[in-house]
Task: structure prediction
Amino acid sequence: MKKVLLVLLAVVMVFALFAACAKNVVEDAIADVVEEVGNAVEEAGDAIEEAIEPDEEVMTLVMATNAEFPPYEYHEGGEIVGIDAEIAAAIAEKLGMELVIEDMAFDSIIAAVQSGKADIGLAGMTVTEDRLKSINFSDSYATGKQVIIVSEDSDIMSADDLEGKTIGVQGSTTGDLYITWDYIDDGLAEIERYNKGVDAVLALMQGKVDAVVIDNEPAKVFVSQNEGLVILETEYVIEEYAAAIAKDNEDLLEKVNAALTDLKESGKLQEIIDKYISAE
Ligand code: GLN
Result:
């Protein structure tokens, strides 16, 4: 009797074991099928996505500027336009990138480029030794001049006559830098620094300053928009405009210089400049 029971028990255990195995096999098979179906659905999804968006995402080229500097950058019809905006757009096109323009204070541009908030700074920006300590400059794309604006009846005839006068500039520009070096540091004149070039010109109109030192092209625009002002014949300083790029972004510097070379050789750069500046 005991033997019979033992045999029965053994038989029951074998069956139980077999059932458990069978259950595992079935479960595994179901899991495999579920996984395969899942993979297939995912692959189909990717294929559909690719079909809808065949291109890779277009990289943006973020340009920092101060759109208060006509004809290089200014607001028109809710947009930022001008020579720099068009040059940057032409560079971006050559690099297969999409241009995004960020408007900010002139003295924030270098920090924005340095920190990577912007890729490139174009703002009629003059190459200076001091700025080269913080950022790199591309090859130059235009020549700038610092000129002196006075009212028509002024007794200021040249830079020498600035002694003893109050001079208006846009703060942190090269005009500010040169006047500070040549006159202010030696106590030879007074300076008033404004956030925008146009504000310095308005101060001149109101008699708050005796002269404004600013880049030639915006000077021409501001003088044409306001009665009674003239630009002195003598150029104060000649300088080079270039694009600011972060020191650790050598790759972009090379690409921008290559694009600028192309734009110069094809005549496109001159075409952009001629569109905004009529030949003298
Ligand atoms: N060329 C000048 C500079 O670099 C002024 C530029 C500007 O005001 N946007 O300082």
